[in-house]
Specification:
Blueprint lengths: L16 E7 H10 L1 E6 L13 H11 L3 H10 L3 E8 L5 H7 L5 E7 H7 L9 E4 L1 E3 L17 E3 L7 E7 L10 E5 L2 H4 L2 E4 L5 H13 L5 E4 L9
Parallel strand pairs: 6-7, 10-11
Antiparallel strand pairs: 1-3, 1-4, 2-3, 2-9, 3-8, 4-10, 5-8
Helix pairs in contact: 2-3
Protein name: DUF2971 domain-containing protein
């Protein structure tokens, strides 16, 4: 269930377009289970996920000097926060295709901020929040810690190209044991507005995706990306 958190930065424009680039197996798993996978925050490739910048860490160490459990909490809390990452962009991103899909057989889900919110409404077990990631200099800039989600909504400037918006959830109070992540119930038809097939894929692959999606009972518009279309000279 989507919960609006006034402390978390998010655009008011619900028509802002967002994308998720993934391989076919993960996409089909989403359709078949009607669930969205959210990865455990400490399982991301970036080791800084859920950590603090240097100025913030120095302040936390001072607090922890008299309360050691304060620092221990932030270290262990990463295991209880799960995240689904989306890319904000009006258009497809060549870089995202390169990074998040393999063997020219990936695809991209196109959605909007408004659709993400509505798609989360069926979920009743855990609360989800949606927030834009802030990109900062971890050696100089401060990350506030008056909200437990803040460490997960900041990343180093090196990742600015991701233009990330996150669905984020804290399962601490749900007594859930999670390994690599957690699947949450979503309204798939609300979540997905359009599907784009990898720009370098063959026609048989597009036809396969269309056939599989139809057999699963969904009627999404499916197009092949035109990033690799023929030049006009």
């Amino acid at each position: 269930m989507y919960i609006n958190n006034p402390n978390i930065k998010l655009t008011d424009d619900e028509d802002i377009i967002v994308w998720k680039y993934l391989d076919l197996s993960k996409f089909l798993d989403m359709l078949m289970s009607k669930r969205l996978f959210m990865s455990r925050s400490d399982k991301f490739e970036d080791q800084y996920e859920g950590t603090f910048s240097e100025p913030t860490y120095e302040e936390i160490k001072k607090i922890a000097a008299n309360n050691p459990k304060f620092l221990d909490y932030y270290k262990s809390h990463r295991e209880k926060v799960v995240i689904s990452s989306w890319h904000i962009n009006e258009y497809e991103s060549f870089a995202m295709w390169q990074i998040f899909t393999k063997n020219n057989e990936g695809l991209a889900i196109q959605s909007t901020i408004g659709r993400l919110k509505k798609a989360l409404e069926p979920e009743r077990k855990t609360e989800q929040h949606i927030g834009e990631v802030n990109y900062i200099d971890y050696k100089k800039e401060y990350i506030p810690f008056d909200d437990t989600f803040f460490p997960f909504l900041f990343k180093r400037k090196s990742f600015q190209y991701e233009r990330e918006v996150r669905i984020i959830s804290d399962v601490t109070t749900d007594n859930l044991k999670i390994n690599d992540g957690l699947k949450i119930d979503v309204d798939i038809n609300q979540l997905i507005e359009r599907i784009y097939i990898h720009p370098k894929s063959e026609n048989w692959y597009k036809n396969l995706v269309i056939e599989l999606v139809e057999k699963l009972g969904f009627g999404f518009t499916i197009e092949k990306s035109d990033l690799e279309s023929d030049i006009l000279i």
